[in-house]
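Researcher: We're teaching a course module on how sequence relates to structure. For the next exercise, students receive a sequence and then see the predicted structure as tokens, so they can try to spot secondary structure elements on their own. Here is the exercise chain.
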Amino acid sequence: MPQRFFCGENAETHGIRLDVYLDEEDGEIFDIEPDQNDGSEEIASLPRRVRFYHAKIDTGNLAANSENQMLKFCHCCRKNCR
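Model: And here is the predicted structure for the students to work with:
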């Protein structure tokens, strides 16, 4: 299963690397991330990290001048691997 990269807009913005990225024919996207972060700060930041990942995935999958209804459903799955 391939990794997927979404770069930042320029050299000063943050991009993402998705460990497992599945783009299904029915229009759903699955992002599966094995996660080894088990500290309280990492766990507390998870909702914001997922929000950022969703934004990058949406930006990479919505063509210019497309309606928002064209956004694919995105499911992010995080699994603690420790």
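Model: If you want an answer key for the exercise: The beta strands are 4-6, 16-18, 20-23, 28-35, 73-80. The radius of gyration is 14 Å.
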